[in-house]
Amino acid sequence: MRALTAGRTEEVFYVLCLDQRARLLFPALLSRGTVNEAHVHPRQVVEVALRHKAVEVILAHNHPSGNATPSAADRHLTRILLNALTPIGVRLVDHLITAGDRCLSMAREGILGL
């Protein structure tokens, strides 16, 4: 993810589509935003996952501010996307936030879907 987001001065939001063996099928850039937000609609995420026949997805975006701490909006969007993906049989594996040379995993932090 750092390679995809390095040096960006605006937020970008990716959906990494994975197959049943957790291999990358397609890194979909869904949104380019401003210095502090990138708008993503749940429908976009579902459409990309289905189009690429993803069994699992990893959400990923950057924080140009340099602070990888998930915001309330990040947590809220993750919960909404988890609720949109689960009924169609697509597993949300993680939501990664990159900031400079730091990468935070919401799954590892125990806050995925909260």
- According to CATH, the homologous superfamily is Cytidine Deaminase, domain 2
- CATH arch. level architecture: 3-Layer(aba) Sandwich
Order of helices and strands: HEEHEHEE
Output the structural class.
alpha+beta
Reported by name, the CATH topology is Cytidine Deaminase, domain 2
Give an overview in words.
With 114 residues, this protein is an alpha+beta fold. The protein has one domain: Cytidine Deaminase, domain 2. It is 25% helix and 32% strand. It contains three helices and five strands. The chain has helices spanning 2-5, 42-51, 72-85, and strands spanning 12-18, 24-32, 56-62, 91-99, 102-105. Strands 2-1-3-4-5 form a five-stranded mixed sheet, with helices on one face. Strand 3 (56-62), helix 3 and strand 4 (91-99) form a beta-alpha-beta unit. Helix 2 crosses helix 3 (72-85). The protein is globular and about 35 Å long. The mean pLDDT is 92.
